[in-house]
Amino acid sequence: MRIRPGSLIGTPTRARPHEPHLPHPPRRSRSTRKLWTAGLLALSLPLGLTATAAQSSAAPVPLTDGPGALRFEDQFLELYDTIKDPANGYFSPEGIPYHSVETLIVEAPDHGHETTSEAYSYLIWLEAQYGKVTGDWGPFNDSWELMEQYMIPGSVDQPTNSFYNPSSPATYAAEHPDPSAYPSPLDQGVSVGQDPIAGELTSTYGTADIYGMHWLQDVDNVYGFGNSPGNPCGGGPDTEGPSFINTFQRGSQESVWETVPHPSCEDFSYGGDNGYLDLFTGDQGYSQQWRYTNAPDADARAVQAAYWANQWAAEQGNASAVAATVDKAAKMGDYLRYSMYDKYFKRAGDCVGATSCPAGNGKDSAHYLMSWYYSWGGALDPNAGWAYRIGSSHSHFGYQNPLAAYALSTDPALIPDSPSAGQDWGQSLERMVEFYRWLQSAEGGIAGGATNSWEGSYATPPAGTPTFYGLYYDEAPVYRDPPSNQWFGMQAWSMQRMAEYFYESGDALAGEVLDKWVDWVLEHVTIGSGGDFSIPSTLSWSGSPDTWNPANPGSNSGLHVTVTEYTQDVGVTGSLANALSYYAAATGDTAARDTAAGLLDALWANSDGLGIAVPEERGDFSRFNDPVYIPSGWSGQMPNGDVIEPGSTFDSIRSFYHDDPDWPKVEAHLNGGPAPTFEYHRFWAQADIAIAMATYSELFGDGA
Fold first, then answer.
1. 458 and 582 belong to one structural domain
2. d(Cα 336, Cα 373) in Å, to the nearest integer?
3. Residue 378 in this model has a pLDDT that exceeds 80
4. 220 is catalytic
5. Does 443 lie in the same domain as 361?
6. Could you read off the pLDDT of 324-339 as tens digits, one per residue?
C-alpha cells in the first residue's frame, strides 16, 4: 500500500487477589542469547514486499561489520553527534532538550520550544545507550542531574507539602466531557479515600516533597509566565530560562486547540481576577497556589533507562559509575506509585456514583496500572495550611511499562526503599501484562484502556461494558479529540517496553501477546528502495474485549482494529524497529529482525543534516482558528497582553506565533491556501531512532 507523505505524523499525545501467571519458561541467559544472535543476518526487505513476505528459511550466517548490524552502531554515533551539536538547535542554553528544533509546531506541547518530561526521559535513555556503546557514563549522570534541576520541582517550588493530610487528599470536582461544562464546582459532599503511601514516603525520605517530574515546561518562556524552578512565582515575561506551565484541564473533548495555557504557580498576576483558576474549578473563594502534574510514562521511561544503564555498566565492570543515579531512579519509582491509585482514592473496581462508590481504605483504591497522571499542589501562603494529592482513574495501555515495573520489583539496585514498594510494583507488573492481554484485538493490536471513573464523574457506564478487575473498558481513555487510541505511535511505544520485558524475563503471557501483535504489525509494514517505507498511522476500532477472567482469558473475537492510514512518522518507526529487534532477539523471529533492519535503513536514507525527517502535511493547522471556550462574563489577559474572553481562539491568545518565521505558511492556509508542509526534527523522534540503531547493533552485531 502506498502512503500519503506525512500523513498524520506526530499526532498529539496527551496529557485484588494476586493472580498467578501462566508458568514462565526458563529465562534464556545472556550468554545463550549471544551464541545464537551472533548468527543472525540483517537484510533489508526486497522492493515492494511486505514484511510477512520476507520470512526466511535460510540458515543464519554470522554478521560482519559494514553489511551487517555493526553499521548501525556507527550510525548511532553519527546521529548522536548530530543531536548533541549545539549548532543544530535541539537544546536550550541550559542544555534542556526542546520538543523540536522548529518552533511552529502544535501537538501535546503547543510550541516547539516547550519541552516535556517525555523529552527529558528520552535524553536519559539516549545517554544510557551512549554509555553502553562508549563506556562513558558521564553524560548519562549529567542528563539525570539536568532533569532533577529543571523538571522536578524543588522544595521552594512545592513549599507547603508539610500541610498535606493523607486522610483528606483532595476535594472532589467532577470531570466533564466538554470544556463548556467548566468550571467544575468543588464538592465537599463527596467522600474521598485515604492516601496509603504518603506516610511511608515521608518516613523513608525525610521530606513531604514529591520526587517526580512535572510534565510541561516553556523552555524559552515564550508565554511569559516566568515560573522558573527555584523562583516559581517571581518571574514574568522578562525572565529568561524555563518556566513550569500547564494546558489540558477541561475534559476528554478538550483538544490542544481548545486549551488555555496557564502557570503552574498561580499568584493571580495574569489571567482574570482569580488568575486562571476559575476557568477550571468553581469555588467560593480562590487561593494563590502551586500545582504540578506528572506524566507517569515519562518517569517510567527514565527508570527503564536507568535499569539498562545499570546492567550495561555492570557488564563493563563499572556499575559504580552509575550507582548514584540508579538510586535516584529507584526513588522516582517509589513516588511513581501514585499513578496506581484512583483519582480520589476511591475503591478501585465497580465504582459507580460519586456519593455511593465508597472511599478507599488502605490499598483497595489501587488499580495497580500506570494511569494517565498524578498531581499534587498546595497553598503559596505558608500559613494557609493546605496541600493536595490526586491519582488518576483512567489507564491507557500505551502508558504501561512492564520493564520498569520488572526493574522496580526485582532488581536490587532499583527496588525502592519504601517497605511496600517492591511488592506494589510486583503486583503492578502482573496487572500490566494481564491488561495488554485483556485489550488485545482479534487481529493483534491493543485497544485503549479502562477507567475506574466513567466520564471522570463515577457515572454509570453503558449496560454490558466489559470490565477488568472491575474497571470499565474505555475505547479512548482520557481524550477523544482525536481519540487517544487511533495513533499507532501508542502501539509502538508501549509494545517496545513489552518486548524489552519479554527479552529480560521470558514471561509466557507477554510472549503470547507479542507473538500476535508482531504478526499483525508485519502485515502492515512495507519497505521499498532507498527511503521508501510505510507503517500504520491511524487505527479504527470496533467492538469490545471480553470481560477479564484471569483463569480463562477470552478470545476477544468481538474486538477489532483496522488500519485506515499509513505514515512515514520517523520517530514511531524508530520505536517500532526497536520493538521488533527485542522481540526477534527473544524468539529468533527472522521476519521481525529483518523488518527492523529494513526500517532502520529506510530511516537513514531520509537523513538531512539536522537528523532524520520527512515532509509532513499539516492540515490540522486550520484549527489555529478554533474557538477556545471562555465562560460568559469572564475576561483576562495573557502575559503579553493577548485578551482572553468569549470568542477567543487558539490563535488570538497566542499572537506570538505571528512573529514566527514559518507563520506565513500557516496564514496562507488559514486564508484558503493548501495545507502547509513542514519537516520537523522532534527531539524524542531523533532519540528514538538513535536508540533503535544502537539496540539492533547490540543485539545482532558481532560480539553481541
1. yes
2. 10
3. yes
4. no
5. yes
6. 999 999 999 999 999 9
pLDDT at 369 > cutoff 80: yes
Q: What digits encode the pLDDT tens for the residues 11-47?
A: 333 332 222 222 222 222 333 333 233 233 223 333 3
Among 118, 200, 254, 616, the active-site one is 118
Range of the domain at 650: 616-679
Tell whether 338 is covered by a domain: yes
- pLDDT, position 25: 29
Co-location of 664 and 548 in the same domain: no
C-alpha distances (whole Å) from 361 to each of 187, 251, 346, 348, 492 are 20, 27, 8, 10, 37
pLDDT in tens, 271-304: 999 999 999 999 999 999 999 999 999 999 999 9
Average pLDDT, the chain: 91
Domain CATH for 666: 4.10.870.10
Q: Cβ–Cβ contacts within 10 Å for residue 530, how many? A: 11
Would strands 114-116 and 216-218 be described as parallel, antiparallel, or unpaired? antiparallel
Q: Is residue 30 part of a domain?
A: no
Query: 3-state SS string over 679-698?
Result: CCCEHHHHHHHHHHHHHHHH
Q: Is 114 annotated as catalytic?
A: no
Residue 49 to residue 535: CA distance in whole angstroms: 13
298 closest CA partner among 217, 194, 186, 185: 217
Provide the 8-state DSSP code for 270: S
Same domain, residue pair 525 and 674: no
Phi and psi at 280, nearest 5°, equal -115, -45
Confidence of residue 68 (pLDDT cuts 50, 70, 90): low
Name the phi and psi angles at 321, rounded to 5. -65, -25
| 206 located within any domain | yes
114 bridge partner residues: 218
Residue 69, pLDDT score: 76
- pLDDT bracket for residue 152 (50, 70, 90): very high
Per-residue confidence (pLDDT) for residue 701, from 0 to 100: 87
- How many structural domains comprise the chain? 2
In the set 297, 474, 504, 601, the catalytic residue is 297
Clarify whether residues 294 and 348 are in a common domain. yes
CATH (domain of 409): 1.50.10.10
In a domain, 34, yes or no: no
Residue 309 burial class via C-beta count within 10 angstroms: exposed 0-12, middle 13-18, buried 19 and up: buried
Indicate if 412 and 485 belong to the same structural domain. Answer: yes
Q: What is the mean pLDDT of residues 523-547?
A: 97
pTM of the entire structure?
A: 0.92
Give the mean pLDDT of 87-111. Answer: 98
pLDDT tens digits along 419-461 = 999 999 999 999 999 999 999 999 999 999 999 999 999 999 9
Q: Characterise 643 by phi-psi region: left (phi > 0), alpha (psi -120 to 50), beta (else).
A: beta
Q: Does 404 lie in the same domain as 494? A: yes
3-state secondary structure of 37: helix
Give yes or no: residues 320 and 259 share one domain: yes
Reported as type and span, the H/E element at residue 493 is helix 489-505
DSSP string, 551-592: TS----TT-EEEEEEEE--HHHHHHHHHHHHHHHHHH--HHH
